[in-house]
Amino acid sequence: MIRIANAQFWVHDQDEALAFYTRKLGWEVRSDVTMAEWSFRWLVVGPVGQDDVGLVLMPVPRPPMFDAGVSAALADLVAKGAGGTLFLETDDCQASYDDLSARGVVFNDPPTPQPYGIDTSFRDPSGNNIRLTQILDFSPDRR
């Protein structure tokens, strides 16, 4: 069997991202290993109670991995939200919205009824999109 162990977001600053995911979202550190000889830090966080999957907070690569132009372009795309989306589920979207707002998370929109559930979104400090959804019984006919 093959399982997803980790997903990855490009981040502009690992320490800033770490503070956001642990202090504002309340996640835990799964791994924080610095390999000085490679100038590399492996940083993984994840939701408390969901131990089998993590989010790698990977710095935007710089030379020699990417040349300066490619690195800058990728950083710009991430800042604009083009780096991908993380989809989170909650049992109570409004309660999670209220809790995270109180911790300093700035949402793009309030919890909004959709055909599939109640949904809202926010971004991390690097610009990565995060959707928070309370899944309801799905019906394609629901308006």
UniProtKB/TrEMBL annotation:
* Keywords for this protein: Dioxygenase, Oxidoreductase
Q: What PANTHER family does the database record attribute to this sequence?
A: GLYOXALASE/BLEOMYCIN RESISTANCE PROTEIN/DIOXYGENASE, GLYOXALASE_BLEOMYCIN RESISTANCE PROTEIN_DIOXYGENASE
Q: Does the keyword Oxidoreductase apply?
A: yes
| Top-rank lineage group of the source organism | Bacteria
InterPro entries assigned to the protein according to its UniProt record, in alphabetical order: Glyas_Bleomycin-R_OHBP_Dase, Glyas_Fos-R_dOase_dom, VOC_core
PROSITE patterns cross-referenced by the UniProt entry: VOC
Question: Does the entry feature the keyword Oxidoreductase, yes or no?
Answer: yes
Upper taxonomic lineage = Bacteria, Bacillati, Actinomycetota, Actinomycetes, Frankiales
Protein species of origin:
Pseudofrankia inefficax (strain DSM 45817 / CECT 9037 / DDB 130130 / EuI1c) (Frankia inefficax)
Locate the VOC domain: which residues? 3-135
Example of a GO MF term: dioxygenase activity
Question: Under which name does UniProt file this protein?
Answer: Glyoxalase/bleomycin resistance protein/dioxygenase
